[in-house]
Amino acid sequence: MTKPTPSYLTGFGNEFATEAVAGALPQGRNSPQRAPFDLYPELISGTAFTAPRAANRRTWLYRRQPSVVSGGYQGYTQPFWRTGAAGGVPTPPEPLRWSPFAIPDAPADFVDGMRTVVANGDPEAQTGVAVHVYLANRSMLRRAFVNADGEMLLVPQHGRLHITTELGVMDVKPGDVALVPRGMAFKVELPDGPSRGYVCENYGAFFRLPELGPIGSNGLANARDFCTPVAAFEDSPGNYELIKKYGGTLWTAPMRQSPFNVVAWHGNLVPFKYDTANFMTIGSISHDHPDPSIFTVLTSPSDTPGTANCDFVIFPPRWMVAEDTFRPPWYHRNLMSEFMGLVYGQYDAKPEGFKPGGASLHNCMVPHGPDEEAYEKASTAPLAPHKLDNTLAIMFESRYRFIPTEFAMTGGALDTRYAECWQGLQDQFKGT
Ligand SMILES: O=C(O)Cc1cc(O)ccc1O
Ligand SMILES: [Fe+2]
User: Fold this and answer.
1) By the 8 A CB rule, do 263 and 63 touch?
2) CB-CB neighbours of 225 under 10 Å
3) C-alpha to C-alpha distance for 386 and 381, rounded to whole angstroms
4) Which residues of the chain, if any, have pLDDT below 50?
5) Ligand 2 being an ion, which residues bring their Cβ within 5 A of it?
6) Active-site residue among 289, 332, 362, 368?
7) Are residues 113 and 252 in the same domain?
8) CA of 349, closest atom in ligand 1
């Protein structure tokens, strides 16, 4: 079977309409007595029917078989995919860091290769997120995955992903991010072989663009740079396996047909990808290091204004020009909890110890900041304009403490010497 070549519609939160076969979308109504070509209309609502318009997301699918046609579900064993705060172990009150997570040789696809590093909240309460790494070396072929617990934000770090969703296909490379809405079936193929990346599974309110306030009507991630696939369906008969994550448990069911059988759709609950190279980065052009919120790509708000369930933040290539300023992050501690990953390059606060494919965790009120090397360099360097280039760090920031999993603490990647990176910072008070 030839794979459909990805083709995209652009914009964030748009009302899109797309058909893989001309004439497949009903006109002027959503569920005619018989839809064109005898397709089945099906509605997927990502928000309550009564959510305010600006926060309402739903899509109408016109498909060859409704999703309800499947065999019975049985439990599926994947002990490394943990859910919510309850899926973790006691959280040490200190900074944690992980070396790059190794991709095992044992066969594992995107689902079986998922390893939860930290999680918080509870999908039953629609709060919190989990952060996983996928360590995969097999494509999903006749196997699809649906997550009823949350949407999935994918951040590939090593290897491209070919993602087939019910709404169409996307090619995603390191430097891009991709999102699949809660409840939407998808599968992941690995054109480059063994692959690794970060995943934020968001049990809370869907990720959206942040307000821009005084920044104005342009900047940060611009809506036009988000790409949503056009309608595409798999035209190959035969069985499929559907893995479903539901309330923290994985289930498997046989299907008589590919779930990727949507011929046309219209709506605003959609998968998308975004190339972080398009992020319009704002920084200080006078003095002082700004708060990292200026680097927010997407935010999942909580019920408390300004206190996110999760902010997705990037530290992309950018110019440093601030005068009379210590340019890397300051020493700090924070109500919000910070989980970081590195896609490529070096992070200015930790030039050596923080590696691509690794991670760090600075939880609520855990002090952290530049390591000794970063402090020495940044406090003495001439403050000429300087390009931080070839770098992409990411951060998931949450109001809820991130609880590490057993895999995180005992799986072999934990950097037990992390605290040493600050031990050389001396009392250099010159006042007496
Ligand atoms: O701790 C970190 O490295 C992340 C971070 C970066 C920054 O520029 C300001 C605050 C902050 O928490
Ligand atoms: Fe921080």
Assistant:
1) yes
2) 18
3) 10
4) 1
5) 338
6) 289
7) yes
8) 3
Region for 288 from its dihedrals, namely left if φ exceeds 0, alpha if ψ lies in -120 to 50, beta otherwise: left
Please choose, from the candidates 343, 334, 396, the residue with its C-alpha nearest in 3D space to the C-alpha of residue 152.
Answer: 396
Instruction: Give 347 Cα–ligand 1 centroid separation in angstroms.
Output: 10
Expressed as residue numbers, the domain containing 122 is: 8-15+37-45+57-90+106-276
> Over the stretch 307-332, which tens digit does the pLDDT of each residue have?
999 999 999 999 999 999 999 999 99
pLDDT digits (tens, 9 = 90+) for 345-386: 999 889 899 999 999 999 999 999 999 999 999 999 999 999
DSSP secondary structure, 53-69, as one string: GGG--EEEEEESS-TT-
Give strand ranges (E) for 160-239.
Answer: 161-165, 168-172, 176-180, 186-189, 195-202, 226-229
Which numbered atom of ligand 1 lies nearest the CA of 369? Answer: 1
C-alpha to C-alpha distance for 89 and 407, rounded to whole angstroms: 10
Distance (Å) from CA 388 to ligand 1 centroid: 15
Q: What is the rounded distance in angstroms from the CA atom of residue 166 to the CA atom of residue 42?
A: 12
52 lies in a domain?
A: no
Judge whether 332 counts as a catalytic residue. no
Ligand 1 closest atom vs CA 368: 1
82, 308, 358 from 93: Cα distances, Å: 21, 22, 20
Domain with 265 in it: what CATH number? 2.60.120.10
Of 255, 276, 297, the one marking the end of a domain is: 276
Q: What values do phi and psi take at 238, rounded to 5?
A: 125, 170
**Residues paired with residue 180 on neighbouring β-strands, in sequence order:** 152
Task: Identify the pLDDT of residue 432.
Answer: 78
Whether the model clears a pTM of 0.90, i.e. scores above it, the answer is yes
Residue 211 maps to a domain = yes
Instruction: Provide residues with CB under 6 Å of ligand 1.
Output: 289, 292, 329, 338, 349, 362, 368, 395
Measured in Å, residue 353 CA sits from the centre of ligand 2 at 16
Instruction: Name the residue of 338, 394, 402 to mutate for ligand 1: max ligand atoms within 8 A of Cβ.
Output: 338
Strand bridging mode 143-147 / 240-246 = parallel
C-beta separation of 100 from 413 below 8 A: yes
Residue whose entry in the numeric block shows the structure tokens 């403050």: 383
**Residue of 379, 370, 365, 371 lying closest to 329 (CA atoms):** 370
User: Residue 78's Cα: distance from chain center in Å?
Assistant: 20
